[in-house]
Amino acid sequence: MGVNPRVPGKQVCDLLSVALSPAQVTPVDRPPGEYVLAGKAGTSPLRRATQKRTNPGWLQQAFAALNDYGFASPTATAILEQVVNRPSAAGQLRTSGGIIEVCQSALVTAAGSTVYVELSATITPGLPPEVAKVDVEAFPVVVDDDDLCTVAERLETMRARLRVDHHLQHPDAPREVLILGMPTPGYLETPPDWEARLRTTAAVVGLRLSIVAAPRELSSQALAERADLVVVITGRDWRLSIERFDQLEKPVERIGSPGATFQSLHSEFRQHIVAVMWGAALPSGTGPIELLSGQRVYHRKVPGGRGFDRFDDGSDSPCAHGKDGFVAWSGDKASKGMLRRYSNFRLLHCSQYPNCGMYAVEGA
Description:
By secondary structure, the protein is of the alpha/beta class. 30% of the residues lie in helices and 24% in strands. Strands 1, 2, 3, 4 and 5 form a 5-stranded mixed β-sheet that branches. Strands 12-11-16-15-13 form a 5-stranded antiparallel β-sheet. Strands 7-6-8-9 form a 4-stranded parallel β-sheet, with helices on both faces.
């Protein structure tokens, strides 16, 4: 996947665009300049900002850097071709004097491992423009929540440094996250731009962020209903607000501990929304399950749905209210979510709603 084709001409720093389709590269035994810059100029920011007459020495520097990371020359050539011509994330910023700062990256699978590769370049104006500086960084990635948080941090830095303001929204995934509370006072070393940092973290995974500082500010029903995810910064008393979101069946996550650093709070926020969005983006690995007549499976809702609800893996055990406490349920989003998992079912819910959030499906 290159710079996302759904937004032609835009620069994108989006984690899911990077992570969902790692590029499989095949080693190429050709000189990097001949192979990477062959044919017409590409549409990536780096290719658009340079010309055929631009000194290709920068490419040799990038190639040598990949060699230093341990990639054999044929593999380094293939990786460079991908990152230079078809990056998964890219951005550029024109600074004073016409200097262009560019950053491009991709997740590539090469020689049996997956690697995140990021190339940054400074391009000076002229006829032709020249690449005055190039840097390459690469590190191995296991495509799971933890390593994707590391990739997300890199994309946040790229987005903030190059002032990328576009973000993607992903079908069937959450679109809005609401934070209840603020890190000031209570969290140590909170930077003045803390709000911008949290917004950037949300944008990198395709979420728009709203922040409510105090319970009295949560007066808009539209704001509460619009939120797909709710994150509470531990500090103020949000119990009544949380009850309201429980009644709306909005997933609520608590993060932070007063006295901790803002950095740790920020990391918790990132870990939560990366896990939610990654889970929402992953395709289902199996087809619908056919339940036996009368068979029951009990589920609790998890974050990640928008047009439909998502549920945990399910259990044979009901909630503390017992199996006889379940009644027929007609929730539209819950039914849509269960239809993605089961082919034949009757939807049930604990009769103690809203104090209990357990669902059940029973084979029809």
